[in-house]
Structure formats: C-alpha cells, structure tokens
Specification:
253 residues; mainly alpha
Length: 253
C-alpha cells in the first residue's frame, strides 16, 4: 500500500482528468473520435509509467530488503522475491485507475463498481484458498494478487473501450489533446503530492524504524479507521461526472 501510494504521484492526475474529460464529452457525437484518441493517448502513458514503476521496484529490491525493512523472521531471499512480485503487481494494477476513471466519466459506475467488488472478492477468497489449500507462503499470496490484478485491469480496459462511442477511424496518440488537459492534470498532481505526504509518510517511517510485524498491526488499524471513506467515495463517484458535464455545458442553474 505504501509503495502504491508513493508511486501514485506519477499518476499525474490523469485518472481524475480522464473521468472529467469523458464526462464533458459524452453525449456529443462530434467528440467520439477525440474521446477514443484521448483514451489511447493516456493508455500509452499509463502502461509506459507502469513499466517504469515495475523496473524501479525491481532495481530497488536489494536496497529495500537489505537496508530499509527490519525483518528477522523471514530470509532476505524471501523478502526480495516478495518485493519483486509487488513490482509486477504494481505494473499490472497501475492502468486500472485510468480505465476506472473513464468508466466513471461515461456514467458506467455500476459496471466499474461491479468489477471492483468482484476483484476484491477474488483477491481475498482466492488468496485464502491458495494459502489454506495450496502453499502457505507470502510468495504464493502475491502470485495470486498479480494474477487478479492483471485480470481486473484487462476487464476494465475491455469494458471502457466497448463503452466508448464508435468513430470513423482508429484511435491514435494525440499531443494536442494532451495539451488541452495538462493544466487540470497538474493541479490534481499537486493535490496528490500533498495527500501522499500527509497520509503515508507515517507508514514509510515506521517501516524503517520498527519491525514488519508492528507495521502490520499499524496498517490494519489504519485500514479499519479509513473505512469511513467507503461512505463518501460512492457519493463522489456518482456526483463528479455529472457536475463535470454541467460545467462543460455552462449550466450553472
């Protein structure tokens, strides 16, 4: 979770920007080609970023395992293998926020939420089965997480592309479209940087100062305390695209 939060800065606000732009353009047939071009452009950026994140984690494995984490119960080799699997998980999980943002902007909240719910159940129940009936190791747990993240991202991608309006030509990478959205994306990036610093610095420090066992207890408590976000998030997901469309039409009333 801490690694994912740290790298979320590299999202550059594009997930939320995708949500906003789809909501602003949906319903206008003349925007069909630009919607598909924007999706293809951001998709390329996301997958390239995901590959970069995976490479960074892979290269940083010896440093994190040997000099950062305080762990005596697990061997260094086990920690290193687990961190490499985390890198793969981040790579495959990374573009999912783009596809989810696009579906939300197209008012396909039910479809996106269904995939998220199904993915959560599959991750939890599947991991329990793998550990209880198969291999009770941390490596087996993360292998399953990697598989589910890949399936989830591919499902979201398929849903998004099928939800986009048809266009007379194939989608293409578009620098002009990226130029139109960079200001909003930059503002969202600034918010992300501040959010990551304020909400995840504690776990980064604890992972250096205390044992992994203590970090586990702390993270469990933080997760339980953050459950209230599950009440506000659905409201945001439902209202944000609608307000974006109203702003685009200058419908202040």
């Amino acid at each position: 979770v801490t690694l994912q939060a740290a790298f979320s800065i590299l999202d550059m606000g594009l997930g939320t920007t995708m949500n906003r732009e789809m909501a602003r353009r949906v319903g206008d047939k003349s925007e069909a080609a630009s919607m598909r071009d924007l999706t293809r452009s951001l998709e390329i950026i996301y997958w390239c970023t995901g590959l970069g994140i995976g490479a960074i984690v892979m290269l940083g494995v010896p440093l994190i395992a040997g000099k950062w984490l305080n762990e005596n119960a697990l061997s260094v080799a086990t920690v290193e293998q687990t961190l490499r699997l985390m890198g793969l998980w981040l790579l495959f999980q990374w573009p999912s926020s783009l596809y989810t943002g696009g579906l939300m902007g197209l008012q396909r909240q039910v479809a996106a939420s269904s995939v998220a719910a199904g993915s959560a159940i599959l991750r939890a129940v599947g991991a329990w089965l793998v550990i209880s009936q198969g291999s009770p190791t941390i490596q087996a747990f993360f292998v399953w997480q990697v598989i589910v993240s890949l399936l989830t991202t591919q499902t979201l991608r398929t849903l998004l592309w099928r939800s986009l309006p048809p266009a007379p030509r194939r989608p293409a990478f578009s620098k002009p479209l990226l130029g139109e959205i960079w200001r909003f994306a930059a503002g969202m990036t600034s918010i992300a940087v501040i959010t990551v610093f304020l909400t995840h610095l504690d776990r980064a420090l604890i992972s250096k100062m205390l044992s992994l066992k203590t970090l586990g207890y702390y993270t469990l408590a933080v997760t339980a305390g953050a459950a209230v976000n599950h009440i506000s998030s659905p409201l945001f997901n439902a209202l944000f695209p609608g307000f974006s469309g109203l702003v685009a039409r200058a419908d202040r009333d």
